[in-house]
Amino acid sequence: MADVVLKQIRKRFGPIETIHGVDLNIRDGEFCVFVGPSGCGKSTLLRLIAGLEDISDGELRIGGDVVNDTVPKDRGVAMVFQSYALYPHMSVFENMAFGLDLAKHSKDEQNARVMAAAKTLQLEELLDRKPKELSGGQRQRVAIGRAIVRKPRVFLFDEPLSNLDAALRVQMRIELAKLHEKLNTTMIYVTHDQVEAMTMADKIVVLRAGTVEQVGTPLELYHYPANLFVAGFIGSPKMNFISAKITQVSQQSVTLKLESGKEVSLPVDGSGLATADRVTVGIRPEHCSIADQDTALFTGTVEVVEHLGEAGLVYVRTGSDELFVARVAGDTAIKTGETVGIQAAEQDCYVFDTADMAKRRLAVDNAPLKAQMALN
Amino acid sequence: MNAKAWKYLRKAAFWLLVAVIVLFAVFPFYYAILTSFETGSALFEVNYLPESFSLINYISVFKGQPFGHNIFNSIFVSFLVVALSLLLGVTASYALARVKFAGRGLLLITILSVSMFPQVAVLSGMFELIRGLGLYNSMFGLAISYMMLTLPFTVWVLTAFMRDLPRELEEAAVMDGATPWTVIRRVFLPVMWPAMVTTGLLAFIAAWNEFLFALTFTLTDDKRTVPVAIALISGASQHEMPWGNIMAASVIVTLPLIVLVLIFQRRIVSGLTAGAVKG
Asked: According to DSSP H, which parts of chain A are helical?
């Protein structure tokens, strides 16, 4: 049981700085997910917390103690690796007991702890097997078991599900969430998959190029992204961006003119903006609908239609470089080459200023979001 | 000629080639065994099939000189060389493969370049070293000088092998509270057996067959290793070469190697190819 506090953490490899002063506060028992594109420093940050890399600058506290110079085993953390990293010559039991053996726990204690973990993870039948005789999902469970038996204060997961197939990944995601509920231990989880982040996290930390872009609950990031990067990263398919020019601005709304010539008024806090500023409007594919060409925000030619079954994705050429994506009903009759109009409700639109920072949306009404925000 | 005939011809050519290679490799040893069972003037008659059988050479080789002692010396030195080479090789390769330090590449090249010097070039310097250490005419002197022959390839093979072991394996052990020595002993060693068997066996063969150092750094009969002892086997008179005894001795010292290679041959192959293909 411990909180994890990072203060101005920096990491340099020679002259190159890869983590640029990260401040973070992870509460006791929280499931915190680091997410970001590859090379954003999320794994490095996790390895700094684990103690596998030295912290160049800043302060790391686990459970109140400064652990910058503490060796990994004394930090009270356990890590699950992407490749599982099971010891190939040891049985499942020996793999899980190895850490306890090194810590000089008695045989009885080792036995009891491994058995308890095996029961939790349904590994009892497999204790005598070698890792090569296990399936991917079973190996993953052994790796998690190896972490559990040490009763760490903090669990660290480095993309643990990325080597599993899609169906197993969903199953393990649920098992991990249940495990967290049961153990109620602080967990830090690194992934590049925003679906994993959205489904499991109490708190998501979005990283880009070694800096924190935003910290928040999953729905906070979805509804109130701090900037263009977070807005584009959270949500799938990713948010569409179109440029517009402001014609009228107040603290309750912003009126702007789209490139199609259409004028709309959005319920967004316009402070800091001025008339004639160029801004970016963000519309999520799931908030789009196909409309008559005269009432639509803009029109375009359909280039690709993807039928997913429960929904369809329509890719529309609107004149800009990027295709505009709209999520429509699964039984849509839209065909390639058609000209369609795109419509979206005013309260579902996002506005970003010239520095790519988001303007506060004022008309968001979402029950789960309120619940998540109340918890924090 | 039709396709079928071509096929048989190709097959025949292939087996002919195999037969030539086998003959070339095995015939000298076969002839040594044949000769070792012959006595008297039969030794000097050319025959390719056994004609007489006598164990007298095998008995007399142990009588004429302390050959049993020589065999023991060879075994002792060879095992000592294998043990020291593997201990130093594994620990050095951990540092060279896993620890980042300045001059690592240079050090690896230096170790490799040691094996480029011909033995004769370092003989006199090595002699001074051995004498300076007070190890002249001693098994330990031989073992230490043999390290020059075995360590370069031991370190290189093991370093290459260790480099291919997943880094996460080591990191998992570190998270479990393992010190570098524990990582080597309880995680890497068991995984590295194939590579260690290969390098260990090659080191054993090198030490077992070594002649020049063994000749130079020993003085008395009871300290000699087998290759030197065989070369110094002498007959009743200056003009007589005891071919029977020499052949018997050669067969005796070759057998352990053959047995070892047969026992470990599967391991050797897997050790030599490990790292090339993940498996």
From this structure: 42-50, 92-102, 107-120, 136-148, 166-183, 194-200, 218-223, 228-233, 367-375
